[in-house]
Amino acid sequence: MKHDISALDVLLSRASTDDLEAPAPTGEELETILSAVMRAPDHGKLRPWRLLLVRGDARQKLAEKVVASMKRLDPDVPEKKIAKRHDRMANMPLTIVLGMHLRPEDKKIPLIEQELAVGAAGMNLLNALHATGYGAVWVSGDITYDPVLATELGFPPPHALAGFFFVGTPKKPDHETKRRPVAPYVAEWMGAPVTFAADKD
Ligand SMILES: Cc1cc2nc3c(=O)[nH]c(=O)nc-3n(C[C@H](O)[C@H](O)[C@H](O)COP(=O)(O)O)c2cc1C
Question: Which is nearest to 51 in space by CA: 105, 15, 97?
Answer without folding.
Answer: 97
